[in-house]
Amino acid sequence: MLRRSVVVIGLAVAVLAAGTAPAVSAQRTVLAEMFGATWCGYCPNGRIALQELQETYGTEGLVCLYYHVGDAYATAETHNRASYYTVGGIPEVNFDAETEVVGAGTNIIEVYEPIVASHFAESVPVTLTTEGIIYASGDPDSSWVTTVFKAVDTVPYGDLRAYFIVYENTSEVYPWTVRDMLPPSTVTTLAAAGDSIVITKKFKVDAAWNLDELHVAVFIEDTNPKLVLNAQLMPAPFANSLDHADRYATEIDYFGEAIYHIVLENTGVMADVITVDIGHDILPDGLGPWDWVAFYCDTDGACHFGPWDYVLEPAEKETFDVHMTDGVGHTQGMALTTLTATSSGDTSIVSSESFATFVDLPSILLVDDDGGADHETYLETALSDTGYTAMVWDAEVRSRPCLTRLNSYWAVLWTTGGGTAGDLGGSCENNMAAYLDGGGNLLLASMEFLSSRVNTLAFRTDYLHIDSWTNDNGGFVVTGVTGNAISDGMSLNLLGGPFAPNASDVFVSNSPADVVFTSEIGTEGIRVDENGHKVVFLSFPFEDVKTTEADPDNQKTLIGRILNWFNLPTGIEDGEVHRLALHQNYPNPFNPVTSVAFTVPEGGGSVSLTVHNVNGQVVRTLVDSELPAGPALAVWDGTDDSGLPLASGIYFARLASREDSAFRKMTLLK
After folding, report:
1. Which of 126, 351, 531, 533 lies 20 to 30 angstroms, CA to CA, from 111?
2. Is residue 459 a contact partner of residue 430, using CB atoms and an 8 Å limit?
């Protein structure tokens, strides 16, 4: 096979020669060998391009090595490899020892990408299966790597050698830094399909190297002519995953139990003993782990309240039922329960998954998508002030939530703070749309969501029903719409908040979207109630709404009204079936008056709404009569049936019909 060479000067590319690959059958992993140095001005262009391509292809599709020459990272071995390729100037990148690219302009990825794509599409006759362990010990025999080279077709090559390269990701600027080139092994036993050879290499780790950033690359090369047949990055020997959960949140009544199903898998290449454990990350104030109890049960039916070891072969799985039970029966709140799996082969390998159980509260997911800032605290505080709580999901740390996670919650509150939301598109919007299709409730508060749109997606047109918008043209004050359940009587001053409100967008919507907020410039808030789901979109930042303004012009009232609107059954005006429902009182905490909204089930009938103290005694009867089906409202002034004011504390509202009942906690503060 002839060696191809590509010479790059600026943006000029010349292909000098090309060979024809034989008809072979195994999938290739492309090897990119870069020659550079810390003093090389153009080398960062090549490195950045290779990093972008490795993100695209993964390490399963593209293995990269950085041979330093003439700098502090250089070794005799890296210089020898440069001489092997007759490297005359840097940067130089050799793809599969077959295609050489010299130089690197700012658009060098346009040269690299088609080369990698063409090589990746080629198949080769040899597969590599590698395992090994890297230890910190300086013992030359402590670390090892073993690779099985197997022919899956006729191998039409001659002088084959197997290379094992230890490299370190020394920094983002100098990844893949070659630290050690183990002596290559001559391969003479691969000729026909089915032939194989096992090669093991032992090596030591220098104390100056970062153990967590060390890797081993393996490749097999025909040295005459130069051609890399295939390559592989040694997989992590020990790895595990907790995945495939059926759901991530559950609402339960007092003394109820939530059960979650999840799968543990040994995703490493070696057998492992994996320790599983469970615990609460969050509990309501005053409760301990034996008030709300967490445990897990395995496929054998054995249940554990603490750590337990499971021996799993590579790819072997174990399925668990994770339980969270309320053992006190009188406290609202959320339990965040986490299951962990720790590898004994490498205790730094830990997988975890958390489940949010809401006791006598609706399940709410707060997607904190503000780029790592702490602006989610505004919404958290407003929720707490209205008697709700939420599972906070940091999108910067955990990436944006998947559809299964969204579908686990009654309501999703998604805020982007001052971020551009420029990459909140594609799969994210499709997940939001699918969540709404399942009957979800969504609040999206983002002042840059519209202005950062590039493509027209169904979420904006078919779910938000927004026709057009004007970028960065928001007003300093947004005003509610008279009679609107969310914004009636509101005048929200946005000046003085954490973000400049003029960066908000104004837009034009169409039916069935209802305008909720307007400024002197145009519409800045809508609500949509259709097809069994509800969505509220605010193009101004929720965080700019004041916390200290009197009702209704504050964050607490705004989020309380939105959640109350979510909670009302849809389609009541159209004669939809009514079910018994007791909504959270508002305001809560309160002094001295609060409103309690509820729904009388289909057919109406006798309904009672009573207030109980923490001992379960009835202190006030608010409703005890025949009522028609549909929504209703009662007001409690904090007094008992004798008209005497009650002390500050926790009280419970109980709604009961002939067939069902419901409770809500209320807090009276004086």
Report:
1. 126
2. yes
CB 362 within 8 A of CB 581: no
| Of 11-15, 91-95, 503-507, the least confident | 11-15
Residue in this structure with the two tokens 């971020």, named with its chain if needed:
419
DSSP at 503: G
How many CB atoms sit inside 10 A of residue 29's CB?
Answer: 26
CB 176 within 8 A of CB 34: yes
pLDDT tens readout for residues 547-597: 999 999 999 999 999 999 998 543 333 344 467 788 888 888 888 888 888
CA distances from 55 to 92, 175, 278, 467 (A): 21, 13, 34, 36
DSSP code of 27?
Answer: E
Contacts 24+ apart (CB under 8 A), 460-465: 460/429, 462/433, 463/432, 463/433, 463/436, 463/528, 463/535, 464/509, 464/513, 464/526, 464/528, 464/535, 464/537, 465/509, 465/510, 465/511, 465/512, 465/513, 465/526, 465/528
Q: What is the pLDDT of residue 96?
A: 97
Q: Is the separation of the CB atoms in 91 and 46 below 8 Å? A: yes
82 to each of 66, 88, 91, 92, 126, how far by Cα in Å?
11, 8, 11, 9, 26
Sole residue written with tokens 């004041």: 546
C-alpha to C-alpha distance for 25 and 155, rounded to whole angstroms: 10
Q: Using one digit for the tens of pLDDT, what is the confidence trace for 404-426?
A: 999 999 999 999 887 666 667 67
CA distance 165 to 179: 8
